[in-house]
Amino acid sequence: MATGVFLTIDTEFTWRAHRDGASWLDNYARSIEPGGVGIAYQLATLAKHGLKACFFVDPLPALLFGIEPIRRIVGSIQEAGQEVQLHAHPMWLQADRRGGRRAEQRADQRADQRAEQGVAPQQPIRFEMTQFPEDEQRGLILRAAELLRQAGAPDPSAFRAGSFAANADTLRAVRRAGLRIDSSHNGSLMPWPCETGFPASAVAPLSAGPIVEVPVGLLDEGGGRLRHLQIGAVSLAEMRAALIHAEAEGSPLATLVGHSFELATRDGERANDIVRHRFDGLCGWLATMRDRFPTRFAAELIDVRLDVPATPCPISYATKLGRVAVQGWSNLRYERRL
Q1: In this predicted structure, what is the pLDDT of residue 169?
Q2: What are phi and psi of 211, to 5 degrees?
Q3: pTM of the predicted model, to two decimals?
Q4: Which of 34, 160, 216, 316 is least enclosed by beta carbons within 10 angstroms?
């Protein structure tokens, strides 16, 4: 039986650009369409190779910027025939009153003044879902889902917490919000910010009561160190090895993760050709291996086989060393300014 590939793209405005005082158009350029290799490039590459991908879209910046930028994102993805599901970084709930670096500095000054006056301080910005109790998480998910619908997406069936920051409350909130799939478990980020309670080594779909948990794939680097299968963080050889390993273990699914801004430099001004070529190579390889590794939408995973024993893919020290060398060159070539 084939091992499906859940190719996911977390599609989001970056807080860093917001802190720099970027307008939504500037943030869109830096986060959604940076360096000519944002979602338009990714969608075209997927179409070229006939692949499916799930774009986990964070609609909460609409609370600050309005619904238009989210509608633009959703429309681009749907016009390309790809899937939109729900993503959420909760700090955007507070961005409308604490937006930009200067606003945060003013908030800090006000906090100092309140402290001098003996007044209770304001609560700091909560960046992670796990900083909210279950009922508030459910409300946050419902609010984000409604914004996604306002942007033209269908009712979401799958959710991924921003930064993989999820706990048992998150899973219950997902269920209570009416979604059927969660893909927040990331064993390489345990015990923080990922606190789902599943084993750190979980890589195949799991039963989580009435919902399905779809963990992100992992590499085993030895010595108890795990690394998740993120396009910008592992090599093409490692991604291929992880999929072949999942197939050998009979796993029904392997999950890869990328971001709307991942193929560009951090400032969003140009492509990072090392990561871009890695994405291109992955798509080309998956196209030639579609009989063994067909790509899947989240909506197709409702009936996926659950709780199949599977383990992270072991990676040799030499393979890891090669990746570290390439990543070092990538940082030197594309991120360090002369």
Answers
A1: 97
A2: -115, 165
A3: 0.92
A4: 316
Encode pLDDT of 7-34 as tens digits: 999 999 999 889 888 899 999 999 999 9
- The mean pLDDT value for 185-196 works out to 97
Query: What domains sit in the chain, N to C, each tagged with a CATH number?
Result: 4-91+126-334 (3.20.20.370)
Count the helix, strand and coil residues of the chain and give each as a percent rounded to the nearest 5. 45, 15, 40
AA letter at 199: P
Residues 6+ apart with CB under 8 A from 42: 9, 53, 258, 260, 263, 279
The pLDDT mean for the chain works out to: 91
Q: What is the CA radius of gyration of the chain?
A: 20
In this structure, are residues 266 and 165 in contact, taking their beta carbons and an 8 Å threshold?
no
CA angle, corner 86, sides to 285 and 253, nearest 5? 35
Residue 102 identity (one-letter amino acid): R
Contact 164, 186 (CB under 8 A): yes
Distances in Å between the alpha carbon of 230 and those of 7, 82, 222? 10, 19, 18
Amino acid, single-letter form, for residue 89: H
Amino acid at 64: L
- Separation of first and last alpha carbons in the chain: 51
| 199: preceding bond cis by omega (within 30 degrees) | no
Distance from C-alpha of 57 to C-alpha of 65, rounded to nearest angstrom: 15
Nearest to 307 by CA among 202, 227, 228, 233: 202
Whether the link from the prior residue into 252 is cis, omega within 30° of 0, is no
Distance CA 275, CA 265 (A): 10
pLDDT attached to residue 30 = 95
Q: Which residues contact 290 (CB under 8 A, 6 or more apart)?
A: 50, 51
Q: Are strands 206-208 and 211-213 parallel, antiparallel or unpaired?
A: antiparallel
The DSSP bridge pattern shows strands 218-222 and 313-314 to be: parallel
Q: Is the pLDDT of residue 160 over 90?
A: yes
> At 291, is the secondary structure helix, strand, or coil?
coil
Name the token pair of 149.
Answer: 């619908």
CB atoms within 10 A of CB 13: 28
